[in-house]
Amino acid sequence: MNSTLLLCIFLCACINGRLADFDNLQDTCPTATTGEQTVFINGFPCKNPNSIVASDFKSSKLSIPGDTDNFLRSSLTLDTAEDFPGLNTLGLSIARTDLEVDGLMMPHSHPRASEMFFVSTGVVIAGFIDTQNKPFQKTLMPGEVFVFPQGLLHYCMNDGFEAAVVFSVFNSQKPGVVKIADAMFESHEDMMNKLVRKIKSVAAMEVNGIQNVTQPGF
C-alpha cells in the first residue's frame, strides 16, 4: 500500500513538472549570445554569471508601435528570451498588439502558453473559442484584462474610434503561434469579413444580456 502511494505521488510530481517551463536552478540566467547552434537544449544557454548586467533585465522593444500598414490593420510584436536575455528560464514572454481603427488580429492559438491580455488604450473586442465551438467574448476598455486559455483559438478587434494598444504576458518562454488565416478555398478578405460579422454579432448579444451562445461555424 505504501509503495503504491509513493508511486502515485512520484507520478503526480512528474506530470506537474511537465505542465510548465522548467524552473530556474539559479538566481538569473540571461541568454548568452552564441554563434551557430551546435547543442540543442530546452531554452537558451546562460551567460557567464560574472558578465550579467542590469541591462539584461530591461527591454524597450515594446515601446515602439508595430507596423499596421497591412490588410488586417494590425501588428503583433513578441519579446522573448531570444531578444530579451533576462527572460531566459523564467517561463515568461511578452507582446504588444497594435490595432488601427477596425483592425483585426485573426484567430490563432499558442500551444505552449496561456495569455493575459491587458488593454492599454482604445476599445477592443477580445474572445476565444472552446473545444465545443462556444465563443467567450468581451468588449474591453483601457485598464481591463482578459485571459486566453492555453491552446484555444482566440482573436481581437478594435471596436473604437482610435488606435488601440494591448500588452500581453505569456506563461511560457516560447509560446508558439498556430494561425488559421491561410485557410484553403477562401480569400483572406472573405474570411476576414465573415469573422468581423460574427464577432460583432456576439458583441451585440452581449449588449442585450445574452452571453456565450454557441454559434455554428464560428
Automatic annotation (TrEMBL):
<feature type="binding site">
    <location>
        <position position="110"/>
    </location>
    <ligand>
        <name>Mn(2+)</name>
    </ligand>
</feature>
<feature type="signal peptide">
    <location>
        <begin position="1"/>
        <end position="20"/>
    </location>
</feature>
<dbReference type="InterPro" id="IPR019780">
    <property type="entry name" value="Germin_Mn-BS"/>
</dbReference>
<keyword id="KW-0325">Glycoprotein</keyword>
<keyword id="KW-1015">Disulfide bond</keyword>
<dbReference type="GO" id="GO:0010497">
    <property type="term" value="P:plasmodesmata-mediated intercellular transport"/>
</dbReference>
<dbReference type="GO" id="GO:0048046">
    <property type="term" value="C:apoplast"/>
</dbReference>
<dbReference type="GO" id="GO:0009506">
    <property type="term" value="C:plasmodesma"/>
</dbReference>
<protein>
    <recommendedName>
        <fullName>Germin-like protein</fullName>
    </recommendedName>
</protein>
<feature type="binding site">
    <location>
        <position position="115"/>
    </location>
    <ligand>
        <name>Mn(2+)</name>
    </ligand>
</feature>
<dbReference type="GO" id="GO:2000280">
    <property type="term" value="P:regulation of root development"/>
</dbReference>
<dbReference type="GO" id="GO:0030145">
    <property type="term" value="F:manganese ion binding"/>
</dbReference>
<feature type="domain" description="Cupin type-1">
    <location>
        <begin position="60"/>
        <end position="192"/>
    </location>
</feature>
<keyword id="KW-0464">Manganese</keyword>
<feature type="binding site">
    <location>
        <position position="115"/>
    </location>
    <ligand>
        <name>oxalate</name>
    </ligand>
</feature>
<dbReference type="Pfam" id="PF00190">
    <property type="entry name" value="Cupin_1"/>
</dbReference>
<keyword id="KW-0052">Apoplast</keyword>
<keyword id="KW-0479">Metal-binding</keyword>
<dbReference type="InterPro" id="IPR014710">
    <property type="entry name" value="RmlC-like_jellyroll"/>
</dbReference>
<dbReference type="InterPro" id="IPR001929">
    <property type="entry name" value="Germin"/>
</dbReference>
<feature type="binding site">
    <location>
        <position position="154"/>
    </location>
    <ligand>
        <name>Mn(2+)</name>
    </ligand>
</feature>
<feature type="binding site">
    <location>
        <position position="110"/>
    </location>
    <ligand>
        <name>oxalate</name>
    </ligand>
</feature>
<dbReference type="InterPro" id="IPR011051">
    <property type="entry name" value="RmlC_Cupin_sf"/>
</dbReference>
<dbReference type="InterPro" id="IPR006045">
    <property type="entry name" value="Cupin_1"/>
</dbReference>
<comment type="similarity">
    <text>Belongs to the germin family.</text>
</comment>
<keyword id="KW-0964">Secreted</keyword>
<feature type="disulfide bond">
    <location>
        <begin position="29"/>
        <end position="46"/>
    </location>
</feature>
<feature type="binding site">
    <location>
        <position position="108"/>
    </location>
    <ligand>
        <name>Mn(2+)</name>
    </ligand>
</feature>
<keyword id="KW-0732">Signal</keyword>
